[in-house]
Every structure is written in structure tokens, then in C-alpha cells.
Write a structure and sequence with these properties.
Number of helices: 13
Number of strands: 5
Shape: elongated
Largest sheet: 5 strands, antiparallel
Strand order of the largest sheet: 2-1-5-4-3
Strand content: 5-15%
Distance between the termini: 69 Å
Helix content: 40-55%
Amino acid sequence: MTPDPATNHLGAFLRSRREHLRPVNDSGRRRTAGLRRAEVAARASISVEWYTRLEQGRGGRPSRQVLDAICTALELREDERTHAFVLAFGTTATADPFNGGEQLARTQRVLDNLMPWPAYLKSPTWDILAWNAASRRFLTDYPSIPQTDRNVLRILFTDPTTRERIADWHAEAKLTVATFRLEQARWNASPASVDDLVRALRDESAEFAAIWDLNEVGHLGQGIKHLLVGPEKETVSLHYESMTVDALPGAGLVVYAPVGPRDEHLLDRAMREQP
């Protein structure tokens, strides 16, 4: 059965990138546009037959290691590599796209301009990457936590101060763990580091182990969080939204806003008070 070019999206994409890649020492007299399949296969250390079948849509789905080698052989940009992995697997190639400070610096400016509402940026593995002053004031004092421990799950289950601020901690913990499990499958986020995190939290928190073993999945994209603020522990209801950041695949920008005028008043008053 001949593969349908209209559905062979990965093969068509790889072929287009191969044909646009100019070989080294090109004399300009080659009949073939770009690299030959044999040259790509040699660069990726795979057989020509296997690469040909992949381009033609007859080779099945490659392993992640093979596709990574092919992307390197084709000298794909980061966004092109991400696209290839989405076409093949429905997920991105890596959970660690943060290879420079410039984008994070721009995101920090966005977070600061969202004041006085709390907001923070988390990685695909839910490490806290950036935050604004309101987030530090009402959610967690992130600078006081070592960078290696600055993870949403770890903070939720091991930081007593953060736990005291959440009105319905157990319900929040269940939904958070369920969402984390779902997102790891979606982004294929660094399995080794995730396994290490889960293993450590199971050892440190019986509550985490019990919730994790429920094997539930959920979605934390938006909702209402109830926080206890001020010396009298008054309840403030905040609507939150978790949004993706195109420039940082898998990252989540989480923003909180008061539900009503009373919540806005309490938040503003607590923000002006000294911690």
C-alpha cells in the first residue's frame, strides 16, 4: 500500500529540511537538491534503507533516539526539532528548552508588570523559574528555598509555611499531583529527573506517596484557590490561569487575580503590610 503524502507529515517535513540543507563543499553541479538520503543516514548513523522508508512513510515511527540523531544530522533549529517530535510523538523532544537567559529576562518583565497580582513561571518539570513580588509574598518565599528544591510539588509537600497558606490543602494537593502526572506524559519531561523527584517525595512524604499511588490525572489550567492571608488568616479567593509560553515549550505561566472586590481589598491590604 502506497503511503498517502497528505498524511505522511513527518516524512514530508524531513524531506523538505533535507532538500534545503546545503552540503559542505557543494560545487553547485549536484542534480539532487540539498543532501542525499545516504548523507543524512551516514550523519545519523542509521541505514539508508531505514531513512528512505521513514521519509516515504513506510518505516513506522522511529525511536526518540533515532529521531534526535536525524534532527541533528539535518541541522534543525530548536523549533524545527520540536515540530519533528510533535509530528512523530505528539510531544516535544525535551523538557529543558531553557538554554538562555534572554527569554527568561523578558518573561520576568512580564511578571513584574502583572503586579499587584501574583504570578510565576514554571518549567515542564515544575521547577520555579521566575516570579514577581506578589507571588513571593502570598504563595511562597522562593528566594529562601534552595534552587534545587524550588519545585512546585516539593514546595507543596515539604514547605510548612506554604502549606499553612492554602485553605483546602488536601484537595489542592490531589489536583496538583494529578495535573503533574498528566503534563509529564504530554511533554515527556526529563523522565530521569521526574523519577528522582517522585522517588524522593515518596520517601519524604507519606501523603504524597498515597496521592501518587491513586494514579489519577487531572487538569489545573484554571480554577479558584483559597489562601489565608494576614495575621488573622482571612480567606482570599483568587482565580488562577495557567498558560503556555510559545517561546518556552512546556513552560507554564501561572497568574492569580482576586475573584471579587473583597478579595482585592484583602490582597491589597496584605500586600502593604510587612511580612
